[in-house]
Design a protein that fits this description.
By secondary structure, the protein is an all-alpha fold. It is built from 2 helices and no strands. Keywords: DNA-binding.
């Protein structure tokens, strides 16, 4: 549980979004899906 809490706090610090907020969570999930589709960070855009 501690690792999960740490990661959620880290996401909040890095992005300024709150993963507990549904709108912010949707935005983060969409960004992750987009990054994976683009092959990020492995491929240059």
């Amino acid at each position: 549980m501690r690792a999960l809490t740490y990661r959620l706090e880290r996401i909040h610090k890095l992005t300024g979004t709150n993963p507990a907020d549904p709108v912010h969570r949707y935005t983060l999930q969409t960004a992750v899906i987009g990054a994976r589709l683009l092959g990020w960070p492995g491929n240059e855009i």
